[in-house]
Each structure stands twice: as structure tokens, then as C-alpha cells.
Amino acid sequence: MAEIVEHFEREARFKDENEAEIIRQKLEKLVNNILAQVEKQDRRFHSTLIQSGSVYEGVKVHQPNEFDFMVRINALTNKPLFYPCEKGDGYVKLALEEDEWKEFKDEEGFFSPNQLARHFKKLVNKSLRDTEVPEGLNIVRTNQDLVDGPWGPVFLDLLGNSSEPDDPSGVMYSETHGPATTLYISWEGGSSYKNLEVNVDLTPTLEYPISKLPVQLPNLPQSVDECLQRSGFHVVLAGFDVWCISFSVAEKEILCHSPDGFKVCFRVMKIMRNAMSECLGLDPSLIPSYIFKTVLISQLFTTEHSWEKEYWSQQIDNALELTLQATARAEMHSFFIPGYNLLSIADHENKLRQCILKEMRNGLRGLKMNHTPEDVKETRQQIRVLEMIDLLEYVVSNTLSGKEPTMVWNKMFVNIDNIPESHKYGNFWNQFTDLNSTELDEYAYGVLIQIWSLVEDFFKQLLTSLKGELNLLAQKFYIRTCDKKKQFEIKHKITTKYAVEQMPLRQLVYEIAHDLAEYYSGDEGYSFWTNLHKAVPVSYKSARSFQDVADVTLNAGSSEGLSMFKQCMKQYFATIPEPYLMTLVVNYVRQIFYVAQDTLRRKLEYITIPE
Fold first, then answer.
1. Distance between CA atoms of 235 and 173, rounded to whole angstroms?
2. In this predicted model, what pLDDT tens digit does every residue of 342-389 receive, in sequence order?
3. Which one, of 142, 168, 140, 165, lies nearest residue 155 by Cα?
4. Domain enclosing residue 332, as ranges
5. 250 and 282 fall within a common domain
6. CA 90 to chain centre
């Protein structure tokens, strides 16, 4: 095992430490320049840059292509109050009663991480225009097709576009990947890493003294207690409406003062994960590095073995065995918050994690692989069907019980990769929602008149659910839709009304759901369903409406299961009263208006609502 560990240890090293250090220094200068401009845009966002992540912990592997920074908002240090949330220990909601920050309150009166994140993204984007970029760095622009297309209003908001008129240069740099504002930087200097694309994550954070921690700490080693007294803790954005408790600063100090052998073991586990994931056709992020860090830190303070070179293979083997056992149980507790489980029994992907971990163990022990890429692909496809079932049941059961499946809608609009697309109706929806054109082609008009009665009923219900400016924007969008229809009829001299068979709502909803299942049935759709599935609460109890489908999927294979699922969906929708289906559609579109309101406001400004 020792030779295998040494091989992976060599693979984990940077090939050019000097150039990596130059990249680090230049990136830190760039980020500080950006934050200085951010503060000029909004004085409330005077901040302190906190270096975090693997580069600063000394455990980054292979190349310097990822940098993580927390951005401490100084004015909010130790201010917002903590409230529990349904996600349990490790997560909180915040409340802040200060007029200066009232714009960031959500509908329930809590201090919204989503609204804060979007405002921060806008500040970053505006600041980039005036930020001095160090020599050798080039900030990569977002694909302009994203913002020019019909989904542009939603993408613009998620990407952090300003509510001001579009910049003529089309400057658009950051993209949403979870809570962070991610900048894509091309390194164009040096030679060893020339043209390396570097991801830089900026995550707004709030700092507190450890005495304010809203959960009970376990009995920790004295050195860790002293570390926490110095560093305190932070809360970082964790999706749409909750904050996650973070001990990143304390973890960095622990790793920086840990034995060199400890860091070697951590790096080897990460590079082994990457290698085995690639062999199996899986994404290494399936097993976040934080999982390994949690296990290794526990070993650091409990193991009797040394971290000298002769013990590296044994330490890694022990850590892999513990991680594998925890994944099988779907139970791994945070080192700092024992009540916070880093895994979930409802997460079907635990099966894939076990595949990677088993092959890491086999590789370490010099054994042959037990899983083939074909086996793993089939497991992935089975998981996709199971996730579809969970999502459909959760969304519908919430709607039938009078609850809005807010968590799913929020998950869709927190990342541009989560926004659903369509094969069958994609061209129609693109033209229907396009704010850059008032024209419809013959196909789009044909679909529109088939669902026109549904469109009118839909807007009536949507308008009753929206208030204030959102209501006005919805009225303007309806006026624009009518104008598109009228313009086509004038252009094609359609002067008389003729009967067109109207599509029932139940059929339309079924066809959209069926189309989603088709569109995201390949490998490219795997992450779509997995990301959305994370919005289903762990506490959700399935109605088991598709239990037969789940059984067929696991026993007869994913193809049989997916085919049966698409057939059973039609029967399932037939049992749901149409008023509930309309409510479901309205709730979904209402979220689109909420997300895209800044751009809708500008694009629809020319429309006057009749008295």
C-alpha cells in the first residue's frame, strides 16, 4: 500500500509551486480590488477578506485552479439574531431589525440570504467595470447567448446583472453556483499553468463570537476550544432561505498546525477520489472534500497512530473504512456540531458514493475494481428515476394539502443549470416568453391558440396571487402576450375567429412533465434531477403512489422503470382536480416573476396599463 500512496502523493503535488504562488498573490490582489469597488457602490458592504478553502489549508491537489474566499460583512458582525429552521442543527434563520437592512427581509420577516447574495452579485458585477485587473489575469465573460435569449430576464438576475440599463459592452462575469459569486479567471501569464481557468468563489459571511453559537458544542480538545475562542464562527449563505453555520476559520487553523503527514493523507484521498471517479464516469464532487476532512480531523484527535510516513497507508485505509461505513448508514456527524448529519438517508446518491469509496479502498490495497462504468451508469439512471418520483410526489402532495412546494421552486431559481428546458415545447416557450421580440412563428401561434383559454384563466388566477409591482408586471406581460397574438393575426390576415379545440389543462401539465422526463433522461440530465431533489426535505414521507415503478426500476432496470414512470404519470395526473393543477402552475410562474422582476421592469416599461 505504501507504494500506491506515494504514487498518488506525487500526483497530488503542484508541478510548479513558484508559479502557483504568483497566481495566488495576483488573485488576492484582484479580489481586494473588487471588494474596494464594491464598498464604493454600497457603503454597507465594507468587508474583510477571509482566505479559506483547500489552497489556504495546504491541501489543494494537482493545480491551483480553485480559490475560496469568505467576505465578512463588517457592519453585520454579531448582529442578526438566530432562529431555528426545519433543516435542524447546523442551519439557522436570521432576523435583523435595522432599517438600513430592511430591503433584505423575506416574506416571513427573516433576513434573506438569497436577497443578500443577489445584491452582492450585482455589486460585484458593477464593480468589475472599474476594477484594476493584475497583469496575467483575464476575467472570463459569461456566454452572452444566455442573457440575449428568452430566459434572459431570469438569467440576468441569477448572474447578478444590475437593474440599470444593460451595459453596452455586455459585461457579465459571475455565475451562480450555490451561495457563492463565482468568477472565472484565465491565467495568461507564466508557462506551467498558461491558459489555466481558475474558479474564484466569493461567499458573503457574517461573523459571531463562539459564545453566541446557537447549538451545544461537544467536549472538544483544549487546543480546539482555544482556537474557537480566537476565531469564533460564521454563518454563510446556504441556498434560498437558510444560513449554514461554518467553522472554516477554525478548520484552517487546525489544518495549518496539523502534522505534514496529516495533510499528505488528505491530499492523497482527494486525488484518489478524483482518479476513481473518472474511471467510473462520475463527478468527484459526489464526495465533497469536507467529508474526508471531517473523518480525518476526528482521527487527528483520537487516533493512537502517528502521522509519520510509514503510517500513511494505514491512516488512509482507516479513514476510507470509516467513511464507507458512514455512507452506508447515511450518518456522519459534524466534528463541531454532533447533531448535524452531513449525509441524508433520503439521498439516493449514497449508492454512488459507496462505489467510489470501495474502489478507492481496492486501489489502495492493490485489488482489482469491482464496479464497471456500465454498472455505475445503470445505478445513476436508476437514481434518476427514483429522484423524479420523489420530486413529483412532493410537489403534488404539497399542492393538494394547500402548501406551496416553495423549496423546489427556490432550488430551480438559485442556479441557472436548474432552470428546466423542453424538447417538445421549448421553441414555443422561448417565443412566448421572449422580451426581445413581439413576433411568433406559425408553430408558436398554433400552440398558443390551442391553450388560449388556459392562458386567460391562468393570468386571472396569477393576478389574484400577486400584489403591488409584481401584479403590474404580470398585467404588462399579459398585454404583451395579447399583442403578440394580435400581431400574428394581422400579419397573416386572420380576420375571423374559428373554432380550435382547446387543450385540457391536465393534458398540458402531463405533456410538460413527460417532456421533462424525456429531456433530462440522458447523462446531461443527471445533475438537473439531483440538484432539484436536494430540495425535498429529509422529513418528507412518500405517498408511495409510484412504489411499483420504484420496484421495477430497481429490479428490472432503469429503462423499464423510466418507461413505466412516464406511463403512470398520466394516470396520476388524472386523479388530481384541475384547480389544484392550475394552482401548481401559477405558483411556479409566480416565482419566475419574482426572480426576473428587475429585468421585467425595464423591458416592459414601455407598456401602459389601461385605466
1. 25
2. 998 888 999 999 999 999 999 999 999 999 999 999 999 999 999 999
3. 142
4. 258-371
5. no
6. 18
